[in-house]
Design goal:
Low-confidence stretches: 142-146
Structural class: alpha+beta
Shape: globular
Mean pLDDT: 95
Number of helices: 12
Radius of gyration: 22 Å
Helix content: 25-40%
Length: 516
């Protein structure tokens, strides 16, 4: 066995900000990793011979290092392997350690570049799961308990949802923490006179905590789980309230880079009509390794090729996306060209729907619709006619987000959690609303026009020369810019497409008509 190793390009990660290395990881502790192989996601029936050969070679090399290959997924090009810390350090020269940070407590991590066996150079393009630092953050603004929060019927009327309840449709909901409470779902449906839909829990590399496990957690861990469960139940209840006849799959994965890979691999395998993701990190957050952004987006491209519309919240912290350096930032995976990015609105004191901005434009005291121009992804072909420039002096002509918007701020969504009314919002709420609308529309389209990646269609012009997004969305041309202090100046709200609410909020019937 050759002991030569080469640097894995794009694998460099700095130490997590604010984290301290406490000790080396115990040599016998178990580790599971997901390796990514070269090449695009395969969406046809035939797996190329090169993909099979790459998988076989990688498996053989990993086994030489004492690792066990648990899964080989040829379609996305992923291999899941497990083994002790000692074997992982030998295979990838990772020098794994136990770190501690105020945000996350103790976690396994690493810093610097990975080195892979020389035999796998050019074959393996990413190794994810060695470092468990958090790379998924929820977008959610807490509700204020107003009795005027919007019910499913209110939302369906406000956005002119087409008839039906998404009969025969599969909807995915992505979660990186928390759990589903069947009692709250039942109470929510009873409150609104709805049938309880079929909800399937799909644990990937994370099992939702059980009642017995919950009792064994520390008080702080219990609080974290309850907070996360409230967000999970918001997603599930919004989709359940608008798509009672759909099959809803709730995917659970770890909130690190590996969790993102595992999540999108499952989406590719399941091929739902749409997926709602209300989690993100800034695309230029220092915690990302360069190859993680590439490998996640590669899989999102594969999902889009299979006609899956992945809806991702644009964030609740305006143009800064929780990086307080005075520059403008956008979230990932919202910025990927292969998703639909969802921004937010609110109802102001006069009853008008406007762009969402509550001082100071970021959490925890306020919030605003995330949006802007990507520094990582070039402007896709479908957005070439969009005229929005980056606020950053060194900005590129990048992907513009969000694509569309829906209610995120007051008066929030009518929800139930732990048996009590729990109005809530944020772009975490507008995102499952849009996923629900896509499922409702897809159910009513002729077979030959179903299961299409929805985002580019919004930018295509119809017979009258008007883009579908402009013709079938209600423009939000009023509201505060999305300054998040910092930056003190955000992207402006204006007539037509903008980087705060995109094309605006939906007219579901008009969208259905435009897609026929």
């Amino acid at each position: 066995m050759s002991k030569q190793h080469v640097v894995l390009e794009g694998s460099a990660r700095p130490a997590k900000a604010g984290a301290t290395r406490l000790r080396d990881a115990a040599p016998q502790d178990p580790v599971s990793v997901t390796l990514s192989l070269r090449g695009e996601v395969v969406t046809g029936d035939q797996i190329p011979a090169e993909r099979r050969q790459d998988a076989e070679k990688t498996k053989a090399v990993l086994e030489q290092y004492g690792l066990t290959v648990d899964q080989v997924r040829l379609e996305p090009g992923s291999i899941v392997a497990s083994g002790p810390v000692s074997a992982m350090n030998d295979a990838f020269e990772a020098n794994l350690g136990i770190y501690e940070s105020p945000e996350q407590g103790e976690f396994r991590g690493r810093e610097g570049e990975l080195r892979i066996p020389a035999e796998l150079d050019g074959i393996v393009t990413g190794v994810f799961g060695l470092d468990r630092r958090r790379m998924a953050q929820r977008s959610a603004a807490k509700g204020s308990g107003f009795n005027s929060s919007f019910t499913p019927d209110d939302l369906a009327k406000m956005y002119n949802f087409p008839a039906g309840q998404a009969e025969g449709q599969k909807i995915g909901v992505a979660e990186f923490a928390g759990f589903v409470t069947a009692e709250d779902l039942q109470a929510f449906c009873d409150r609104h006179g709805l049938q309880v839909p079929r909800v399937e829990i799909v644990p990937l590399n994370l099992n939702p905590v059980s009642a017995q496990e919950f009792q064994q957690l520390s008080p702080q861990e219990q609080k974290d789980e309850i907070d996360a469960a409230g967000e999970v139940m918001m997603d599930v209840q919004i989709v359940a309230g608008l798509c009672q006849a759909a099959q809803i799959s709730v995917y659970f994965a770890t909130f690190d880079q590996q969790g993102w890979i595992e999540m999108i691999d499952q989406v590719i395998a399941d091929r739902p009509v749409t997926v709602s993701i209300s989690w993100s990190r800034a695309e230029d957050h220092p915690g990302w390794s360069g190859n993680a952004i590439q490998e996640i987006s590669k899989r999102l491209k594969g999902a889009a090729k299979k006609g899956v519309t992945v809806c991702v919240s644009s964030g609740d912290d305006g143009a800064g996306h929780q990086i307080a350096d005075g520059r403008a930032h956008v979230g990932f995976p919202s910025a990927s060209p292969y998703v639909m990015s969802i921004g937010g609105t609110k109802i102001d004191a006069s009853g008008q729907e406007v762009a969402w901005w509550d001082a100071p434009g970021h959490r925890p005291r306020g919030g605003s619709s995330g949006g802007g121009v990507s520094m990582a992804f070039a402007r896709p072909d479908y957005q070439q006619h969009i005229d929005v420039d980056s606020l950053n002096p060194d900005g590129i002509r990048g992907r513009v987000v969000p694509d569309v918007a829906a209610l995120a701020g007051s008066p929030f969504y009518d929800l139930i959690f732990l048996g009590h009314p729990a109005p809530n919002g944020g772009t975490s709420a507008s995102t499952p609303l849009w996923a629900s609308l896509i499922a409702r529309i897809n159910a009513l389209l002729p077979p030959e026009k179903q299961q299409r990646f929805f985002t580019p269609l919004l930018y295509q012009s119809g017979a009258n020369g008007t883009p579908l997004g402009q013709a079938a969305c209600r423009d939000i041309a009023v509201g505060h810019d999305n300054a998040s202090n910092p930056p003190a100046v955000g992207y402006p709200v204006k007539q037509g497409f903008d980087a705060v609410t995109g094309w605006g909020v939906p007219d579901g019937v008009a969208l259905l008509k435009g897609l026929h």
